[in-house]
Amino acid sequence: MKSARLIGEVIGHMQQYTGDEWIEYRLRDLISKEIFEYRGDLSAMRLYEVKLKKELLH
């Protein structure tokens, strides 16, 4: 899933808006903790895609 779409989905479900920068920071933190895998360039949210690791889907 494109990271910008994922961030938009999260913003749509939040009751209190915190900003897309914070949500992208948390997404990158989850990537560094190896909860999400990514493909692309992490320099901008529109340049990479993420997916949940297969081990966590079960």
Describe the protein in words:
41% of the residues lie in helices and 17% in strands. The chain has helices spanning 3-13, 20-32, and strands at 36-40, 48-52. Helix 1 packs across helix 2. The longest helix is centred in the middle third of the chain and has 13 residues, at 20-32. The relative contact order is 0.21.
Which key features would you list for this structure?
single chain; 58 residues; alpha+beta
Quick summary:
It is built from 2 helices and 2 strands, in the order H-H-E-E.
What proportion of the residues form beta strands (DSSP E)? 15-25%
What is the radius of gyration computed over CA atoms, rounded to a whole number of angstroms? 11 Å
The largest sheet, given as strand count, sense and whether it forms a barrel, is: 2 strands, antiparallel
Mean pLDDT value: 92
> Any idea what the shape is?
globular
Query: What is the share of helical residues?
Result: 40-55%
Structural class designation: alpha+beta
N- to C-terminal distance? 19 Å
In DSSP terms, counting alpha (H) and pi (I) runs of 4 or more, how many helices?
2
